[in-house]
Design goal:
Elements (H helix, E strand, L loop, with lengths): L6 H4 L4 H14 L11 E9 L5 E8 L13 E5 H7 L7 H11 L12 H6 L4 E5 L2 H7 L4 H9 L3 E4 L6 H10 L10 E4 L3 E6 L2 H21 L18 H15 L4 E5 L2 H7 L4 H4 L10 H4 L4 E2 L3 H15 L17 E4 L3 E6 L2 H24 L7 H8 L2 H4 L15 E5 L4 H12 L3 E6 L13 E5 L5 H15 L4 E4 L15 H26 L7 E5 L12 H21 L5 E7 L10 H10 L4 H5 L10 H10 L12 E4 L8
Parallel strand pairs: 5-6, 9-10, 12-13, 12-15, 13-14, 15-16, 16-17, 17-18
Antiparallel strand pairs: 1-2, 1-4, 2-3, 4-7, 6-7, 8-11, 10-11
Length: 658
Amino acid sequence: MKSLWDEREAEGFEGPLGQRVYSSRLLGREPALVLHGGGNTSVKLREADIFGDEQQVLYLKGSGVDLRAIRASDFAPVRLEAVLRLAELDALSDTDMARELRKALTDPSAPLPSVEAILHAALPVAFVDHTHADALITISNSPGGGARVRDLYGDEVVVVPYVMPGFRLAKRFVQEHLHEIAREHLGVVLLSHGVITFGESARESYERTIELVSRAEAYLQERSAWRLALSDAPPPPTTQRVELAQLRAEVARAAGRPMLMRAHQDPLSLAFVRRDDVGRISQQGPATPDHVIRTKRVPLVGRDVSAYAQAYQDYVGELSPRLAADAPPPVDPAPRVVLDPELGVLAIGSDPIDVGITGDLYRHTIEVILRATALGGYQALPASDVFDVEYWYLEQAKLQRPGGQPEFSGEVALVTGAASGIGKACVDSFLRRGAAVVGLDVDPAIETTSEPPGYLGLICDVTDEAQVEAAFEQCVRVFGGLDMLVLNAGIFPPAKPVVELESATWRRVLGVNLDANLVLLRHAHPLLSLSPKRGRVAVIGSKNVPAPGPGAAAYSASKAALNQLVRVTALEWAKDGIRLNSVHPDAVFDTALWTEELLESRAKHYGMTVEAYRRKNLLRVEVTSRHVAELAVAMCGPLFECTTAGQVPIDGGNERVI
């Protein structure tokens, strides 16, 4: 662990609060110190109120704010005196603490302060840093962890046995440990929780964190507990998508809603899941209790989701008498991490961000477990202590989404021809509605059409079956399964009468517009049949199906054949609960199909100007990619749950179709 402090960078952050912002970001850059909103930092300042009277104000990181990108406005300014008085109370409920901290804010629009506000307020120093350093957690969670920490740091730190974070920790600290703090101390180690450092400047507090953690890492290195052995076993099979999708379906059934699942099959993950003792060392509990709301107390080892769900319900039932009056209701019993020797480490969540956080947290948990095991054994907190944090009102509140879950939360959509036009508009619409989306296209731009973690763009020629199969495999490894498929990729060659139509052009158009979709449907079926809310397919057809035009024989024939393929598939797949519906657009000119050359050619064919050709429909409107995409995506939603083999025109009204 090295200090990242750069004096030239630091000069760009003005005043004590600016320096606090800078040092907080340095902490946030290092995942071995804090992850995904973990940790908190503060600074105490003297400020004048509206009457000109000076008061001490504690600027504390807002609850859930990520230190990596924290801004001055993400700190909650609270009146120090008001917060300190809370430590004088004999008891304080979470609801009351949250209300009192809100009342103590000098700016009502600021975020709610971290739950460690009272602890930060009690420490008699200007700058305070609190991190969940992996190296210290490792030492703490090994046999004789407290004694090891004392031997490592001697009198330079105050060691505090584990206490429930929040008011209980602050109260115990003030009563039993505050008097121990002296100028020569570098910080406080909270066993099984983290490390607190402090100083008279942001740099001093930050670099004390780096020093303490560096010494902990050296301690592990000296005892051969740092280097992690990687797996030299063969990698998993190249085809696992059905097994992964089956497991995801069982998880969703236990959760009562669709969930996403990501497979981690790197050497460290595989080494861990293939250990002979993984069933023992993985069941001790999380590295630190604040992980529990993301990872559950223990992972599922193997694939028996039903047994895990029953064990989780038994755990909640046994410990429910400990619940506070304002505790949240029991969460679903589905696992959030699965360890399987063939599938790897599987991270589960309701959306791509949740899945990423769960995966990151458990990756660090693996490292802590393995290093503590090398020290003599991994020891987590008792289940009761973890349960208290899992059902802590203030922790569960971090998972709440304003406005509830989006329409397609936990679901996966795959869109072909997604780099532009209708396909890209479908990607955008699915993402807005909460789905994870895989986009396929031959255009390399597909990789950056949208951004992770909710989007995965894959270069794929849909006429190459091997590439299609690989794309489905990647889709399932990254998101867990497939729920919705949009068949959009297609080509429209320059207009030619039948007598001039080359066989090569005919075969090429049918290869993309028809044959490729047969392959896509065939490979999608086993995945769609495992969709928690039953699979859905939206097909981008064409006005040329009911009303073909001259000069477009290959295109019209391919789309008409695709239409028949979809109708037959709807008959065959209804027993699996999979529905297929088509939209038939016309004259959607903001797509890759419509080059300027083609547009001018078709307008000339009809004896029209280009502008008139754009609006050659009864309503005299221009149909855009967004119009088509919104209808196609709606076909995957509840509005069409009782419809299959439907065909809906979106053409502004066409006399020949009507």
